[in-house]
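hiii so um. not sure if this is the right channel but i have a protein structure encoded as tokens and i wanna go backwards to a sequence. like what aa goes where. can anyone help
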């Protein structure tokens, strides 16, 4: 029997119980923080020597130099050419869809001229160099390569440096092939906090980047948080999340498996269904019991469902949508007979999967939109990874002589009021007598 929580919005303690399910302690464990801090300091001080030492220790390698840890570009294309026809087709199909979607995000600068000849505008330019962290070890994530590298290249990033751990020297062909397809420039077989440090500070071999993107374990997340400010980062992501809004019109096996699809990531994954049909909730719970024994990662799924999973009964869809907006999930499925009218009522979600045929798994791999999404309720104020994350905006100001007369007087007044006389005099110099 799986001990997944059952809630009803009519329960007197519903809000308190929902808050308990949503609660996630995002603070770093002190021991992890201390280890990461020491690694970052060491890499900053000793560069390649420290990266090499930590990589050999943590990934059980015996590399004699950093040159041994750089995977040549020819090896990426060798990996691509070694794939089965089905694997290669899947990678190429997904990469093409991701690229097509992100090309539509292409942002342009603008400018306009005022009546007095003053020109104002915005210039949009790509980052020079970005570091991409790709997890390695127990699982391989070619999808993470595509979802991070493709929009970076669409944005015009000049150089993309990928780091991926290769425990015991095992290099995953799909990951390397994805790097070849998406235009990664250099790849290093390093991981963990030392890889983040190498990208953020630069070493004799690893070039310093402007921004570090990509998911990782607790040590990687802690390292990204600590180097933010030296470099940019995409986000510090929490455990995976899914919320399914259902009206009973779907297949209970589909709903159960969609919950499993996120639960299998992590024992702390958050998997919730909100449904207006109590009988359907019973069917989904029966499907969970039936299907779980067939899952290779059943222990992880069980733990996630029991830790942070819930089946919630709502009085109507209006109430279900209120709960969805309260949760602000990473992935939101509208498993409804007529989902379209409800889409605009969703204000907070990383991605919305509309209708019975739109499983979250399609978004993870090949639908086209990015699978790097805000978690832990941060969809209230942040967005999926996209082309804009690899660009920066620069303001353009060209004041005419006539414009300086108007703006200069206003600036002089402000500066005088703020007690900044050099500002005031600088503006005043441009004023005609």
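sure thing!! here u go:
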């Amino acid at each position: 029997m799986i001990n997944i929580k059952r809630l009803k919005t009519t329960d007197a303690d519903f809000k308190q119980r929902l808050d308990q399910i949503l609660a996630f302690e995002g603070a770093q464990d002190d021991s992890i923080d201390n280890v990461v801090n020491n690694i970052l300091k060491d890499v900053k001080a000793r560069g390649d020597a420290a990266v090499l030492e930590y990589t050999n220790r943590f990934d059980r390698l015996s590399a004699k130099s950093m040159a041994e840890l750089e995977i040549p570009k020819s090896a990426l294309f060798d990996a691509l050419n070694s794939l089965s026809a089905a694997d290669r087709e899947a990678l190429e199909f997904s990469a093409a869809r991701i690229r097509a979607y992100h090309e539509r995000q292409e942002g342009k600068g603008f400018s306009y001229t005022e009546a007095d000849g003053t020109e104002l505008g915005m210039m949009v330019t790509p980052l020079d160099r970005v570091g991409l962290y790709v997890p390695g070890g127990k699982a391989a994530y070619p999808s993470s390569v595509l979802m991070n590298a493709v929009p970076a290249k669409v944005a015009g990033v000049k150089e993309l440096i990928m780091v991926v751990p290769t425990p015991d020297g095992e290099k995953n062909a799909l990951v390397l092939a994805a790097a070849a397809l998406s235009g990664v420039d250099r790849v290093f077989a390093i991981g963990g906090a030392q890889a983040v440090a190498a990208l953020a500070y630069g070493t004799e071999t690893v070039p310093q980047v402007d921004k570090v993107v990509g998911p990782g374990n607790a040590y990687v997340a802690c390292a990204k948080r600590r180097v933010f400010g030296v470099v940019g980062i995409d986000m510090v992501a929490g455990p995976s999340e899914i919320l399914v809004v259902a009206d009973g019109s779907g297949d209970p096996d589909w709903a159960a498996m969609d919950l499993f699809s996120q639960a299998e990531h992590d024992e702390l994954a958050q998997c919730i269904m909100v449904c207006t049909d109590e009988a359907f909730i019973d069917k989904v719970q029966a499907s969970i019991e039936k299907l779980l024994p067939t899952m290779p990662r059943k222990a992880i799924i069980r733990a996630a469902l029991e830790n942070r999973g819930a089946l919630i009964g709502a009085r109507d869809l209006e109430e279900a949508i209120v709960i969805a907006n309260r949760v602000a999930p990473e992935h939101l499925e509208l498993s409804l007979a007529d989902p379209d009218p409800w889409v605009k009522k969703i204000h907070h979600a990383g991605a919305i999967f509309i209708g019975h045929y739109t499983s979250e798994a399609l978004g993870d791999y090949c639908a086209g939109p990015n699978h790097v999404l805000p978690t832990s309720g941060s969809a209230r104020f942040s967005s999926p990874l996209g082309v804009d994350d690899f660009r920066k905006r620069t303001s353009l100001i060209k004041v005419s002589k006539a414009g300086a007369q108007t703006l200069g007087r206003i600036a002089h007044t402000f500066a005088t009021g703020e007690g900044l006389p050099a500002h005031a005099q600088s503006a005043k110099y441009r004023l005609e007598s």
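oh and Residues 115 and 297 are 67 Å apart (CA to CA).
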